[in-house]
Design a protein that fits this description.
Helices cover 75% and strands 1% of the residues. The chain is mainly α.
Length: 352
């Protein structure tokens, strides 16, 4: 699988551009460019999940295994960061009207899309295993239980959207609101600590980091982009802190959170100089939700009908192709659902 990993890396670098001395990409955090970055990490997530269904051994898989184990939850940090950044950018541009729409449009849509996916998982589980408890099915719809999907992420992102709403809805000072989002995010982590494993919450602070980055981006860029010496000084500092904290992983959740924040800032700085951008990565980033949530379905299916350990490459290719096809079909129907939700369902409440 190391060969597949190398091929994937080459595909990620296709179309890559590098700025020369003293030059930086102005659009490094635009929607298209962040979609491409999310596409890279989505591929890594696919590798991560794939490795949970096969037993890989031998010298040709050593690097692949080390890569998977080394990244851990860092894979999802950019998803949370870009979400926080994007929602703050929208609030800055659209104001209170956008804030008011969060609990009626943005958060419910994410949860409803997830529930549609959960129903597919429930049906699949009933067909393959024969039964599922009503309690587990209901709790899975609110992200508290899992039916083999990544429910923790949806619980986190929906909760963070709602925390953003309450933080920005009644205050005019966006900096104070950002502080409240950060504090509430810490409380969210502390609450989840009592009930769930650490992967449910140990990357959550990347979301408020995105909000803060949106607020101070121009100041940060002004400082970093003065010249390459300052740029590399910032990059070296964040990278050193990341490596220092990474060596202390397992000490506490807060060490992990800090490590994730440093990792995100390293990626942000790298994208100022190196642009990863091609149609394939943008496609993955554009369909991030469905590709992320649904990728375990084909893996579970092919695990049952294939000897995955004997044929890991076939398992990988078939799972990947089917994930893309299912995601495209899913997004086609979700687009129609969104149109109905926006134009019909919400319109009923507006009339009342």
């Amino acid at each position: 699988m190391t060969v597949v990993l190398i091929i994937s890396a080459l595909l990620c670098f296709a179309g890559c551009k590098i700025k020369t001395e003293g030059e930086y990409f102005d659009d490094y955090i635009s929607l298209d460019k962040t979609n491409a970055i999310k596409g890279i990490f989505l591929i890594c997530v696919f590798f991560r999940h794939f490795a949970q269904y096969v037993e890989l051994s031998g010298p040709y898989n050593t690097f692949f295994t080390a890569f998977n184990l080394g990244l851990k939850q860092l894979l999802v940090t950019l998803f949370l960061f870009y979400s926080g950044f994007g929602i703050m950018e929208s609030i800055s541009k659209k104001g209170k009207d956008y804030v008011k729409s969060i609990p009626v449009k943005r958060a419910p849509k994410v949860l409803l899309h997830f529930d549609m996916a959960v129903i597919l998982y429930i049906i699949f589980r009933i067909v393959t295993r024969g039964k599922i408890s009503i309690q587990k099915a209901l709790l899975s719809l609110v992200c508290w239980e899992s039916v083999d999907n990544s429910n923790w992420y949806i619980l986190a992102i929906v909760s963070l959207y709602l925390l953003t709403y309450f933080s920005f809805r009644f205050l005019k000072n966006k900096y104070v609101s950002a502080v409240i989002v950060t504090v509430l995010s810490v409380f969210y982590i502390m609450l989840l600590m009592r009930f769930k494993p650490d992967y449910w919450y140990n990357t959550v602070l990347c979301y408020p980091l995105g909000i803060w980055y949106s607020l101070f981006r121009k100041n940060f860029e002004k400082a970093v982009m003065k010249n390459d010496i300052i740029y590399f000084l910032f990059l070296t500092t964040f990278l050193s802190l990341f490596l220092l904290l990474y060596n202390k992983l397992g000490v506490s959740t807060w060490i992990y959170e800090a490590c994730c924040l440093m990792f995100v800032m390293c990626v942000v700085l790298v994208t100022m100089k190196i642009q990863f951008d091609n149609e394939l990565l943008r496609f993955f980033g554009k369909h991030l939700f469905s590709l992320y949530i649904l990728q375990r379905l084909p893996m579970i299916f092919f695990k049952k009908i294939l000897n995955c350990n004997s044929h890991p490459y076939i398992f990988f290719v078939m799972s990947f192709i089917c994930t893309v096809l299912i995601a495209l079909i899913f997004d086609f129907f979700m687009k129609k659902f969104d149109n109905f939700y926006d134009n019909k369902f919400l319109a009923l409440f507006k009339k009342k």
